[in-house]
Amino acid sequence: MGADHEGTKESDYSAPRAGGKPKEIHTTVRYYGGDRNVPLEPTIIGGPKPSLIRVLMHTNRVSQVGQKGTLGPIYNVHVDQSASAAVPLAHRWLGDEAEELLAKPRFQIINMWRPCKPITRDPFAVTDANTVAESDYIKVPFIYPDRTGACGVIG
User: Fold this and answer.
1) CA distances from 57 to 1, 41, 42, 60, 93 (A)
2) Residue 88: which region, alpha, beta or left (left: phi > 0; alpha: psi -120 to 50)?
């Protein structure tokens, strides 16, 4: 995520070469609503990996205070986590374990999106982070009930 560790060059990693290959998952869930967490993570990850430390669900974007129903798609081009946000995110969600885990040669944040119905409109696209400079994004506040984060959008 920007830093070289133990002789590796960050530029040698890209989504297709470093495990970021999109995977199509078919779910048996007919409808996903409310605050219920459907445990799809083990299926999506594909089983235990020797280097996998933990699967952690950190943001479940289902609804907001005072909003009825589920949230629709975000239509603007954006980045969920920037390279500069990776270490602070690790500290936020891993707590006391963060320093020990971040001292390892590499760490990776993997996003999972789980629509539980067929997508027939609002197409979804993913790109390799190395293809867009962080300076091309505009930092926009993303307000949560207990904190304010940021989302990078292309203006």
Assistant:
1) 20, 9, 12, 7, 9
2) alpha
As a whole number of angstroms, the distance between CA 8 and CA 21 comes to 21
Q: What is the DSSP string of 76-126?
A: S-EESS-HHHHHHHHHHHHGGGHHHHHTSS----------SS---SS----
115-149 confidence digits (pLDDT tens): 556 667 776 777 776 777 878 888 888 777 887 87
- DSSP-based three-state secondary structure for 152: strand
pLDDT the model gives residue 1:
38
Q: Using alpha carbons, select from 110, 134, 114 the residue that is nearest to residue 49.
A: 110
